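Schema walkthrough. Field components (list of strings):
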Amino acid sequence: MQDDWQNAGFGLYIHWPFCSAKCPYCDFNSYVADHIDEDRWVRAYIREIERIASQTSDRILKSVFFGGGTPSLMSENAVGAILEAVGKNWRFTNDIEITLEANPTSVEASRFEGYRAAGVNRVSLGIQALNDPDLKRLGRLHSVAEGLAALEIAKKTFERTSFDLIYSRQDQTLADWETELRVALDLAGDHLSMYQLTIEPNTAFGDRYKAGKLKGLPSEDAEADMYFRTQELCADRGLCSYEVSNFAQKGAESRHNLIYWRYGDYAGIGPGAHGRLTLGGHRFATETELSPMGWLTKVEKNGSGEVARSSLSKQEQGTEFLLMGLRLAEGVSLDRYSHLTGSAISPSVIENLSELGMVRLENGILQVSEKGRPLINAILRDLLADQ
Ligand SMILES: C[S@@+](CC[C@H](N)C(=O)[O-])C[C@H]1O[C@@H](n2cnc3c(N)ncnc32)[C@H](O)[C@@H]1O
Ligand code: SF4
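Field assembly_structure (string):
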């Protein structure tokens, strides 16, 4: 019998934890460092690749994702050495996706050619906003002109290019966002990620918000209007909202993210990287040391950066499966849910949610409707209430 993860495949996530500056909204595991001994870091990543590969060598890798932090601060040689080690340790699918998250400064764009030569075939650019005052407020180090120039270079260099925008920004109106979104859609290739600004605790924005000093954030109603307008304008251009914040033409979805959302297996290496691995019939959640120097020393001294590996119960797997899968427009298979958990979701709960227009059930596939999407957390609570 095939393991459940095979429904979605196997990927590798590599976390590079450094940035040139910390953006005030960001709660990712990222740090500004004076000096980085890159060779030492590359050796540690290769050691981690070898450790994980020794447990998963029979797998065929579908995707590699360099995320951060700012992986575009890595040199082309560092990315090349890591990908060489990846290639020595796993077989690849024919259409392997190798993505690198890049910040669009001119220095970073000058490395794109080298990343391409190293094997990267997809870039995700953090453009974030298309006006300079807002980029400044978001603490970004690039201008609109620099962002557009980097996008141009990326499109010429890589088979696939996507970019990220953040909306629901301070003092942004629906009309402002609509104008900006139309420009973004003119610039976009076949994939775009657009996130509503979230005020995270323990960030500079979070602290300012708590102190009542973060002014001009859109109301919940205005946020919802921007969200629905985004869905409409993207659909008009053939960019399907395949996940809550991700839009793509058919076939251009991020394969890496699909592994997560379809509840496949992925190894996570680098500081604070999470993984999900099915080994010997059990599914494990893995975690690595969060602090960059702590992780580096652990790998060097113990031959592993992992600090936790816990076996997931059937129920935990079922919950994660729904949590991930219901973000996708394609929805989840209820058979797969039952297979994972040994139980079924209450038909009456599904029926109630259906009557409210929040979900759709067709041929055993449960989908959250457009109307239900902004309420996805409440829907999940209902679905899992009696589990
Ligand atoms: C790992 S982060 C950043 C990658 C890269 N360092 C950059 O800044 O472009 C991935 C994306 O998450 C989004 N993001 C991060 N924090 C956010 C927040 N608080 N609210 C909304 N979007 C956020 C940004 O669009 C960002 O590009
Ligand atoms: S948004 Fe990107 S560049 Fe800014 S701190 Fe977070 S990871 Fe670094």
